[in-house]
Amino acid sequence: MLKPFHLSAFLLTVATPLAAQEVLPSWTDSPRKAAIISFVETVTDEDSEDFVRAPERIAVFDNDGTLWSEQPYYIQLAFALDQIKAKAGDHPEWQEQEPFSSVLNDDLEGIAAGGSEALMKLIAETHGDYVPEDFRAEVGQWLHQTNHPDYGQPYADLTFVPMVELLDYLRENDFKTFIVSGGGVEFIRAISEELYGIPPEQVVGSELKLVLEERDGVPAVIRQGEVTFINDHGGKPIGIASHIGRKPIAVFGNSDGDFEMLEWALDGTRPGLGMIVHHDDGERAVAYDRDSLAGRLDRGLDEADAQGWHLISMKDDWRQIFSFQEPTDPAEEPQTAQ
């Protein structure tokens, strides 16, 4: 029979690996998971030369394609398309005007051909003249009641399980997590706390003009149909600097729209972790990168290694993508995921 001391030591050695296995359970035991855990353990270890104080543990996440689906097009665009169709009866002129004509004819290529200018027209038409709280309520209802055309599940269920686990894991280690997205800030705020545990004040996104008006005898902040800031590409460092006030030490994206954010934040002056979600799983989701209209990943794919950023393989690194899918059996995983 083991003596109590030896028994305690034995239980400790057994319990430690079991505890480690519970971290990020939807991730396979790949180098990307190991890199995340190693980084977190290093910057939270007070005896490490790379220790980072809790107030400076800032982690930022892109939203579309990083935290939830963005195919066949951005979820916010899907909302705008539904809104345009609902309002079309009051706007017969839209039959002859772009990008509205393309929307009414379900011509996605026509919408894409109009570029960011066309997208901003749609956003301005459908997102303006709202009190922010009313807009968030309408968005939240739409996300829960409207199904994705391919998955047949509510848009609110299109979050990536491994990334939600990662958000929780970072917060458990005193990181403050932010969304930094090219999407509209109020659209994301409608669901950020419910889906990701990120409060509205920790969302940085593209913005419409706000004005103070009197409605029903009381002052109200109203969103107008005028874009004042686009939080994408070079706008993301500006958004972080003006809204957060600290450079993040962990940055997660999925497209070339995140390149400047990764490059600016992870400049080598402090410990840093940069990761890009690579959509390479064509069975459980949609595989895309260089030629995609939404979430194009070209430069980041070529330069990630030289920059020291990790490419997360959805196919090899994630046991499960969406909550409505069954996770893969760990026994079926590749022996070595590179």
Describe the structure.
By secondary structure, the chain is an alpha/beta fold. The protein is 39% helix and 15% strand. The chain contains 14 helices and seven strands. The protein has helices at residues 4-21, 31-43, 75-87, 100-104, 108-113, 115-127, 132-145, 161-172, 185-189, 192-196, 235-243, 259-265, 299-307, 314-317; strands at residues 58-61, 176-184, 203-215, 218-229, 250-253, 273-278, 310-313. Strand 6 (273-278), helix 13 (299-307) and strand 7 form a beta-alpha-beta unit. Helix 3 crosses helix 6.
Number of discrete helical segments: 14
Low-confidence stretches: 1-20
Oligomer: single chain
Q: What class, by secondary structure content? A: alpha/beta
Percent strand equals: 15-25%
Features:
single chain, 338 residues, alpha/beta, 14 helices
Topology readout:
Blueprint: H1 4-21, H2 31-43, E1 58-61, H3 75-87, H4 100-104, H5 108-113, H6 115-127, H7 132-145, H8 161-172, E2 176-184, H9 185-189, H10 192-196, E3 203-215, E4 218-229, H11 235-243, E5 250-253, H12 259-265, E6 273-278, H13 299-307, E7 310-313, H14 314-317
Helix pairs in contact: 3-6
In short, what is this structure?
Strands 4-3-2-1-5-6-7 form a 7-stranded mixed sheet, sandwiched between helices.
